[in-house]
Amino acid sequence: EPEVTQTPSHQVTQMGQEVILRCVPISNHLYFYWYRQILGQKVEFLVSFYNNEISEKSEIFDDQFSVERPDGSNFTLKIRSTKLEDSAMYFCASTGTSGSPYEQYFGPGTRLTVT
Amino acid sequence: GQSLEQPSEVTAVEGAIVQINCTYQTSGFYGLSWYQQHDGGAPTFLSYNALDGLEETGRFSSFLSRSDSYGYLLLQELQMKDSASYFCAVRDKGTYKYIFGTGTRLKVLA
Known about the structure:
The complex is a heterodimer of chains A (115) and B (110).
Chain A: E1 5-7, E2 10-13, E3 19-24, E4 31-37, E5 44-50, E6 53-57, E7 65-68, E8 75-79, E9 88-95, E10 105-106, E11 110-114
Parallel strand pairs in A: 2-11
Antiparallel strand pairs in A: 1-3, 3-8, 4-5, 4-9, 5-6, 7-8, 9-10, 9-11
Chain B: E1 3-5, E2 9-13, E3 18-25, E4 29-37, E5 44-49, E6 53-57, E7 60-65, E8 70-75, E9 84-92, E10 98-100, E11 104-109
Parallel strand pairs in B: 2-11
Antiparallel strand pairs in B: 1-3, 3-8, 4-5, 4-9, 6-7, 7-8, 9-10, 9-11
């Protein structure tokens, strides 16, 4: 069964450093998302991406964040200058055009620890 | 803004039936989804209600009442593996922005 993959599984970085989180969505999916989840809390929407541009972004997704689809398979989230409060689990998700359009397939996540 | 409220924790015994509620305040949405998340894992899709009423998928059922701003997930014949967090979620109408509920941690006891 096709799945969303994410790398790395765990990233430790120092405050102020840039990080890039990588995702490979399911190959025939067209809509891509990034979410974050602080430990023990709810899943928070960051951004949605379609047709090579951002569709929606939340108030969390400020100028420090950017997304890119550099090629036909990868989807990346960049945090320019990390803060302690960016420590969280980051999930990538994708949605296809077949089946339920509201069924999002989530990747296993990247745990980001900012020290 | 949109908000979806859920009970923080529910406990039940194996074999029992449990209902997890989701009450929401939203200006408009396409439908109500439910996701399961085991500790350390990713959310996985369980069900979706586009219209009012009950949707059944095996041991799980989901219900939506737009007039009452309310939905629930019903889990029957509980198994230990059902111990997880459950989130309701909506997609904002006219957007590709998804809002998740506060989450309910279900503990299934032997």
